[in-house]
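Researcher: If only I could read backbone structure tokens as easily as an amino acid sequence. Walk me, if you will, through where the backbone shape changes along the chain. I have put the entry right below:
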Amino acid sequence: MSATEKLAISLPKDLIEKLRRAKDEGRIDSVSGHIADLLRREDDWRDARATLDRIFERCPGPEAKHFAWARQALGVGPEPAA
């Protein structure tokens, strides 16, 4: 693990509450550790997104028959008019 340095940041109140709640509920070990983990994963997410973009630019999108099948399978009505 690399050396650590303290840094004060400003976040919207709702995000601070979300982080504190996650800590209080035991879903994260620490707020600082959680933010560090998210920052470390950022490159992985960017790489995954770039890979998906390359895959989907080569493939055609779903056709109307695919949307119709999905609506029937999900039991929802026809696609709303645009």
